[in-house]
């Protein structure tokens, strides 16, 4: 008799600390999660905001200010990921790893999904208005249009 070994599903869960991410985690747990799934909590740290003001590039006279801003952003990301790990444990998710990517959130999630050979991506949706979404785009739209695996966009 042939025994078929089940492949572990790898599920990318994009998190950013918003209530939308929290709701996406809860939705995934209640509707998609199967025993044996590996959850990759993926958070993007975008340091470029510390180097620009609007569309103008800024290089401060004191390089220590950039270093301090980067360190503060890294600390914030670490605390955020620790919160999500605790949330996952409370929800009964045990096979959870952290993935931190640097750069644009949409692109970072797509690259993480490709590198980790993810089977699906779960993300929240902030519900930007049509004009704002058209002008600046949204992370969930970017993920939907660039992913090669199924994407769940949780609208609440």
Question: Can you put this structure into words, describing what you see?
Answer:
The protein is of the alpha/beta class and 156 residues long. The chain has helices spanning 19-31, 63-90, 105-115, 130-136, 139-146; strands spanning 10-14, 38-45, 52-53, 56-57, 96-102, 120-124, 151-154. Helix 3 packs parallel to helix 5 (139-146). The N and C termini lie far apart (46 Å).
List keywords for this structure.
5-stranded parallel beta sheet, alpha/beta, 43% helix, 156 residues, 5 helices
Summarize the structure.
The chain is of the alpha/beta class and 156 residues long. It contains five helices and seven strands; from the N terminus they run βαβββαβαβααβ.
> Largest sheet at a glance?
5 strands, parallel
Task: Give the mean pLDDT.
Answer: 83
Proportion in β-strands: 15-25%
Helix content: 40-55%
Reading side by side through the largest sheet, how are the strands ordered?
5-2-1-6-7
- H/I helix tally: 5
N-to-C order of helices and strands: EHEEEHEHEHHE
End-to-end Cα distance, whole Å, is 46 Å
Count of distinct strands: 7
Low-confidence stretches: 131-136
Our Rg estimate from Cα atoms comes to 17 Å
Assign the structural class, choosing from mainly alpha, mainly beta, alpha/beta, alpha+beta, or little secondary structure.
Answer: alpha/beta
């Amino acid at each position: 008799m042939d025994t078929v070994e089940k492949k572990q599903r790898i599920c990318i869960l994009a998190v950013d600390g918003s209530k939308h991410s929290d709701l996406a985690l809860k939705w995934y747990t209640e509707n998609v999660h199967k025993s044996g799934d590996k959850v990759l909590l993926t958070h993007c740290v975008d340091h470029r905001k510390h180097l620009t003001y609007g569309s103008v590039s800024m290089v401060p006279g004191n390089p220590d200010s950039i270093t301090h801003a980067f360190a503060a952003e890294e600390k914030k990301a670490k605390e955020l990921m620790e919160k999500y790990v605790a949330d996952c444990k409370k929800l009964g998710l045990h096979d959870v790893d952290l993935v931190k990517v640097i750069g644009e959130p949409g692109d970072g999630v797509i690259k993480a999904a490709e590198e980790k050979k993810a089977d699906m991506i779960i993300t929240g949706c902030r519900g930007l208005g049509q004009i704002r979404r058209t002008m600046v785009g949204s992370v969930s739209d970017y993920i939907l249009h660039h992913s090669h695996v199924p994407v769940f966009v949780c609208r609440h």
